[in-house]
Amino acid sequence: MNKKQMREILDVIGVMYPDAHCELNHSNPFELTIAVLLSAQCTDETVNKVTVSLFQKYKRPEDYLAVPLEELEQDIRRIGLYRNKAMHIQKLCRLLLDKYDGIVPQKHEQLTELPGVGRKTANVVMSNAFGVPAIAVDTHVERVSKRLGAALPDDSVLEVEKKLMKLVPREEWTVTHHRLIFFGRYHCKAQNPGCPVCPLLDRCKEGKKRMKPARSRKDKVINNTLAKKG
C-alpha cells in the first residue's frame, strides 16, 4: 500500500467516525494508565463499569497501596486476568512513588518501564494524556490494518505500528488510531463485519472472500428462477 491509497482510507473512516475518541473513562493521566492496563483482553465497556467505583475509592498511587492485594483483586474482579492486573497496579504505584513522586512520567521509555505497561499502553497514554502523536495497535487496529492491506497478515504488532506510522501523516496518528478502533469495533468486526455495506470493500481481500459465497448463492437463486421460468 502507498500513501495515496492510505489517504483514501483515512478520508473514508474520517467521514464515518469524525468524532472517534478514547472510550475509556478517565480524568487524568494516572486514571488513564490504570484504565488502559485493565483493558488488556477486556472490553472498554467492562473496564468503564469497573472504574466508576474504582476511581472513587482510589485517587492516588498511595490509595492502591493502602489496601491488601486481595481487596484490590475483589474491586476489579469483573476484569479478565484480575489477579495479575491487581498485582501490576500495586507494583506500578510503588514505582511511581519511588521514582516519579507519584506522577505518571511523560516519556515513552519511562512508561514502558512501569509494571503492566507495554508499548500499546504507553502509546495510548502518550497520545491521549500528553498530546504526543502515537498509534497504539490494539486488536481492532491490527485486524483492520491487515484486512485493508496496510500491513501483511503475518506482521507483528510492532511491524503494523511501524507501517502505519510511515503511511499516515504524523499529525494524524492519534486520530487515526481512534478511527481505526471505531471502524473495527463497530463496523469491521472480527466475526460479523459489515462487508455488504462497507465503503472500503474494494480494498479488503477478507471482505471480498466473505462476499463471494453470498454472490454465488444469489447467482444460483437467479439461475434457478430463470430455469423454472424457461
UniProtKB/TrEMBL annotation:
Needed cofactors: [4Fe-4S] cluster
For biological process, the GO terms are:
base-excision repair, AP site formation
Q: Which GO terms describe its molecular function?
A: 4 iron, 4 sulfur cluster binding; class I DNA-(apurinic or apyrimidinic site) endonuclease activity; DNA binding; DNA N-glycosylase activity; metal ion binding
What does the entry's cofactor note say about binding and number?
Binds 1 [4Fe-4S] cluster.
Keyword Nuclease carried by entry: yes
Question: What's the EC number here?
Answer: 4.2.99.18
Q: Could you name the domain of life of the organism this protein comes from?
A: Bacteria
Q: Which residues form a coiled coil?
A: none
Domain (HhH-GPD): give its ranges: 38-186
Q: Where do transmembrane segments lie in this chain?
A: none
Which top class of enzyme applies to this chain?
lyase
Q: Does the keyword Magnesium apply?
A: no
Q: Where does [4Fe-4S] cluster bind?
A: C188, C195, C198, C204
Give the family per the record: Belongs to the Nth/MutY family.
- Name the chain's protein: Endonuclease III
Name the source organism: Paenibacillus abyssi
Give the encoding gene's name: nth
